[in-house]
Amino acid sequence: AILTQAVWLHALVQFAGDSALHSSLLGIGVLHLDQRLQPGEHMKAVAQEELSKHSTADDLWMAIDGDVYNVTRFAKVHPGGAQILQQFGGLDVTSEFYELHRKDVLGKYARLKVGRLATAESSEPRAPGAISEVPFAELPAFQGQNSPYFRDSHRALLQGTRAFVQTTLEPMAEAADLTGDLPDRDLQGKLGMSGMMVSRMGPGPWLKEAKALGIRIPGDVDPDDF
What we know:
This protein has 226 residues and is of the alpha+beta class. Helix content is 44%, strand content 9%. A hairpin with a 2-residue loop joins strand 2 and strand 3. Helix 1 (5-23) packs parallel to helix 7. The radius of gyration is 20 Å and the shape is elongated.
């Protein structure tokens, strides 16, 4: 399977672009720092009765997938406006959330978590690069549907790219954006050795040359399948 440069860029933008877009919202990083759990503080169990008490503009909680988020301050910079969040304050809004958002968005705002619903089932953290099981959150071909276009190499590339973004870029991107720091030599080296740079050039003999130098294409995709 030949993965064209257009598909490669689509994959990279789809799974890294959301973070870049949301990081541009003024004050998000500050909100995260203000509201995150402090060292030694554990995620508490939140009863449904307690959740329902936090339903005002000055004290606004909501639950998604069993996790409870304090969105009081975030509401002021919510792209969809504060009113819609206030309308659903104190409620489990899992269904409403997924009608308008990708699951990836939750990872960016994990620091807003204040607890987990006491009635929610325990959840295992998703492995980096994992394919979401939420309907329509991924291309259907990556959720098990047959496709004449997408093959295992496409899926592997997608997961490899996503895992790199989630484990290497996301942890430092927001702080660097707020401080204006540019990528240092260490990050540039990681981008190069992970295949992020050479893969952007598309299929060609340089992929085999890169592999010979120890550079991995994301997802360990073979140069002949790229």
